[in-house]
């Protein structure tokens, strides 16, 4: 049989500045590139396994998990395949089909899918809507109290930073509310862990999930699941028949290269999280300079507390209406300048991030947008 | 915070001949090494995603899945995180808590864990026991009929080739029995798909799962789930709220490097499967030459139809009893000769595989065992 040509090259990230928020936090540092080379083959992390991935000492998965637990201030940590698989595991361990959970209105689709796969009912805490889309702890409390009057709420899920507006929620306050009501809280840190400080116990959450490929400079798919000690028995329950094996992990999870990259990247991630304030400065500069151009407006909470920015861009939509390339002009103008990551044909609004870029690169992005506007504005 | 040194190097596979069956089928060919380099960063396969991983065209995940479906003669194929995650998904989609499934007595622990995580009852088809440990279709039929008298059997699982004895089961015959009784059959091909020909429709199975890191020359974790068209609605059911997203896949599964390696390796895998007979010849040569040395006996079905071989080795156990290094001598003698993959301290029996080795390497392994015996035999 003949295989097609699958086009397995990816020059996008090498040759361009990528504004796609999804890709900014997953770029590998040199150490992780080396780990990929070393641990590329099959079950590469399993050479010295005695039955438990989290206890492997060569490479030192065990000390890595200790460091990671420290880093996120959790009592126990496991790697999972991603944030969504972590959410699924928590829901699966805590809930039964038909149970009700509460989630914020900015939750990622994977929160909904994890719940749907577990046959759970989601009651939603609405955001404040346009233009801030804020999730207020007060609203969370109201919904939680209201639902708790009717049914037993098995779990509360809060998106620490959402993927639509890049809003950072007040997790401490929501955790206080949940604790008071006796509802365990799962904090979805896919967009925060590895970018900004996340401290499970300080926040007061019961569980956190993180995403290695999204925000921890790791090869996908890999994620992090952290928990308080009181949940270990539930979440890390062992098999009756295979004593060493944890059921929710199906024995073991990330048995290969992505884990090696997550491990190799941890020192880099620890360091970059300590420079989070610089990232915020860069982001705010981007926002203020773009807004100054006119016809561009940042949506979501102000001022920005995260690198993911959503802009409404009537200026580009106006240009598109009379441009010979129509809606494609923006993508093409950016592409000419080696800037990518904004969807082809989209001009009304876009999401972007300059996370991890140098000041010079951020300036170049700003200047490029200015040039495109000046050149094309009617 | 200071991170420990995790020792993220892996010279084992570079510097030695590795007899560990778990690692023989996961070694990357050059094309997959290149894919790893290209697709190392984060969500690398998601640049051009319009909401469905299996429909991504750059890289051409869509045509890859078409070719893969062809290769394993399935109507629909998805990538999953591994064989176990594929088994979990099938059980989760077909069964409810408390349901009963039937599985063979040589099933991998991950079959048990997938069932346990789904709260399923497993009824086991016993093997013939020592020394062949064969799973006979007749025994499968008896158990199935017996259980079906009492409860509704929701699924039958058969290990195509098991990981303890490397026995190839008569999947066609078991499939015939299952079909006759109206019980869907899931064939666990973790040790077969990518090594020997696996044809879902020819066999008559409803589902097959494969393991990329174990047998398909891919970086872990990645697996393959193939099915007949009549199961697509059940297994690939879409979310009510997010129309494009498949619930059992949590939207998407392998979002990164392992998928790129699986794709890059497919032509290599297709080619090597066509040379399976040569692998069997090598394995049988290993068995006959080792058995000729005396005090070594192949366990499991004879003659070998798979590269995984389990040997009983009283000769090494005898030596260990009076050797100054006790049970460690075998490991150490092999290590000196740059042969690894047999557990340290183990001399009563071991599992090994020479899959993918050249004839010269196989001869070297054989000669090494002979030398070790001659040098140490009392
Ligand atoms: C807020 C949020 N949660 C979860 C996810 C999914 O992360 P993963 O791919 O690790 O499951 C995303 C990805 O876009 C996200 O933005
Ligand atoms: C027969 C069998 N099934 C399943 C597995 C697990 O495969 P995966 O790691 O892809 O889940 C193994 C691994 O050893 C195996 O031998």
Automatic annotation (TrEMBL), chains A, B:
Residues annotated as binding pyridoxal 5'-phosphate: 83-84, 188, 211-213
Cofactor(s) of this protein: pyridoxal 5'-phosphate
Enzymatic reactions: O-phospho-L-seryl-tRNA(Cys) + hydrogen sulfide + H(+) = L-cysteinyl-tRNA(Cys) + phosphate
EC number of the protein: 2.5.1.73
GO molecular function: Sep-tRNA:Cys-tRNA synthase activity
Role according to the record: Converts O-phospho-L-seryl-tRNA(Cys) (Sep-tRNA(Cys)) to L-cysteinyl-tRNA(Cys) (Cys-tRNA(Cys)).
Protein name: O-phospho-L-seryl-tRNA:Cys-tRNA synthase
Name of encoding gene: pscS
């Amino acid at each position: 049989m003949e295989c097609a040509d699958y086009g397995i090259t990816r020059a996008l990230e090498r040759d361009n500045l990528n504004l796609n928020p999804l890709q900014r936090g997953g770029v590998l540092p040199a150490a992780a590139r080396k780990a990929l080379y070393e641990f590329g083959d099959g079950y590469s992390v399993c050479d010295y396994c005695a039955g438990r991935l989290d206890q492997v000492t060569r490479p030192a998965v065990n000390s890595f998990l200790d460091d990671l637990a420290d880093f996120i201030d959790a009592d126990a940590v496991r790697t999972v395949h991603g944030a969504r698989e972590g959410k699924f595991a928590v829901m699966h361990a805590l809930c039964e089909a038909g149970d009700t959970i509460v989630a914020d209105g900015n939750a990622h689709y994977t929160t909904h899918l994890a719940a749907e796969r577990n046959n759970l009912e989601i009651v939603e805490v609405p955001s404040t809507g346009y233009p801030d889309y804020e999730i207020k702890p007060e609203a969370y409390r109201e919904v939680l109290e209201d639902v708790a009057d009717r049914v037993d709420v098995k779990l509360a899920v809060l998106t620490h930073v959402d993927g639509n507006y890049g809003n950072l929620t007040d997790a401490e306050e929501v955790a206080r509310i949940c604790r008071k009501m006796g509802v365990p809280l799962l904090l979805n840190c896919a967009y925060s862990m590895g970018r900004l400080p996340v401290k499970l116990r300080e926040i007061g959450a019961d569980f956190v999930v993180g995403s290695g490929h999204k925000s921890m400079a790791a090869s996908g798919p890999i994620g992090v699941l952290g928990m308080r000690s009181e949940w270990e028995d539930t979440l890390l329950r062992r098999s009756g028949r295979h004593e060493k094996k944890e059921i929710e992990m199906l024995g073991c999870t990330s048995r290969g290269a992505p884990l090696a990259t997550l491990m190799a990247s941890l020192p880099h991630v620890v360091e970059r999280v300590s420079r989070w304030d610089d990232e915020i400065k860069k982001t705010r500069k981007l926002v203020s300079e773009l807004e100054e151009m006119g016809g561009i407006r940042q949506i979501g909470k102000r001022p920005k507390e995260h690198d993911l920015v959503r802009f409404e861009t009537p200026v580009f939509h106006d240009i598109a209406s009379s441009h010979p390339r129509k809606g494609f002009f923006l993508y093409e103008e950016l592409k000419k300048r080696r800037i990518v990551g904004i969807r082809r044909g989209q001009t009304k609004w876009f999401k972007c991030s300059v996370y991890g870029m140098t000041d010079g690169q951020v300036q170049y992005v700003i200047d490029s947008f200015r040039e495109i506007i000046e050149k094309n504005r009617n």
